[in-house]
Structure prediction request, 580 residues.
Amino acid sequence: MSPVFCGIPLEHPIINASGTFDALAARRVFGERLLERFPFSAYVTKTVTLEPRAGNPPPRLWELGAGMINSIGLPNKGLARFLAEDLPRLAELPVPLIVNVMGFSREEVAQLVAAVAERDEVAALELNVSCPNVRTGLTMGADPGELAALLARVRPLTYRPLIVKLTPNAEDVVAVARAAHEGGADAVSLINSLRGMALDPASGEPWLGGITGGVSGPAVRAVALAQVHAVAARVAIPVVGMGGVARGRDALDLMRAGAELVAVGTESFRDPAAASRILAELERLDAGFGPSPAAGSPIGR
Amino acid sequence: MSASATAQPAPPPAPFGRRLAAVTARERLGSYLVLSCLDGEGPLPRAGQFYMLASGARWGGGDGERPFLPRAFSALRGAVAGGGVELQFLVEDVGPGTRRLCELGPGEDLALVGPLGTPFAPPRAGRRPLLVGGGVGIAPLAILQDELGPPAHALLGFRDRRHAAGAALLRDPRVSTDDGSVGHAGRVTDLLLAELEVAASELEVYACGPPRMLEAVRMLCAEHETPAQLALESGMACGFGACFGCVVPTREGYVRLCLEGPVLDSARLETALVAGAAD
Prediction:
């Protein structure tokens, strides 16, 4: 189970979902043991934008029965400080680095891609296209034409692998994935969180400072499986599958549906080392040592 | 007053990953439960540090099918014991997560990550500590009183007699209750104001409690130019800086309470009223 992903050799197929593990903060909290037992085979950064962002006003979290809603708003220190302060320290991680970027126009994305891709510390880039293009008003990753135009602008800027992170809030995810492939993307990753909201039980007003947020965790797992399955069947480039992965079984499902790599997100909040446990469970299942899954319907059991 | 609290070495790192700790005792204390467990790995928590807690089994399926995320709890006490660290937490049943924790007893496990966060700092030179706690927020003041020793006098406020039973966790506290059933009838900040009026320049205040109490403490201390260290609470998913969900506004912008806090110097805050925190 040592995949070569977009030409990058990896020790195993489990990585992190962008924005769900701050390796620099975790190193501060857990010390050097984090590096000795680093749970991911590649590290994906939180989204970097051109300008610094404070993020959304709190409250930012809502708990669900099988997951959560977050309305974080992509806080980050901006491209210049990311390159100067964070990237050299992230390069000390024992795994390849994938930098996730997002711009509010094609030009912004182009600036981000050009600046990040020229750094030797970077193995690949992931494009967060789950935001509206302020020029056209269309979510770049929800519209195949928008995405094609974006890739036409940024693909020629780098030879480094480009991964397009697809939003599940699109009418036709397969069409967007095709546009990514045709536009020269090296891989797609999915699913991002699903738009959701919660009301303050006392006031009946939206609870989250950002009004709506992204639903993640086991609640979205079946949606992720369906979208990964649909995209992997129709697009030839590698797929990074994610969405509610909490056990080795969930990772195996996504791989059987066509994912080459699997990302762990929300489960890392519950246990920072969850990805190591999930990998161990996946390896046992893969070697045939896991509990044999019961055949047939889970209904009624 | 100096701009920031006394510098101190960073606490030792927490073990990486969630671990199980066997519950060794549960003791009723009025409205509260003192939950003790044996953590085989350590290190000892410092006063003000917290752990993310869940039950080792059956976490979920309560009201609204919750809980899903672990819950942040300040260490009430920690001591080296029996090949590890005995930890105590103060729990009040206020929702599906705390309810599940209240069900745990010896023979069951807590799942925990920690110790996490930035602890209280020692008092500035020439000042003696005054501890101000409200409700379940008295928990970090117990371990703080152990650390600081006899000069650390405590003022504790509770809703009523049932809650005021928690005062037994600290040494020689002065107690107030909202309903007047125990001690001073009124707010714990009434007791604080009386202390500040005679000794503001000799005190450093350490406070933990509900947001409105902390905001009253912050304002009183600001008026009297008395430094204060406030242990805040904010909804947290992870406790180790990953989710960015627990941010609170400070004079230098949003900070992640799990990393920069939970103890913040009051001089950094324009308000201690944290959006979304329980009353």
Summary: Chain A touches chain B through 42 residues (CB under 8 Å). The mean pLDDT of chain A is 94. Chain A is about 35% helix and 15% strand. The first helix of chain A runs from residue 23 to 30.
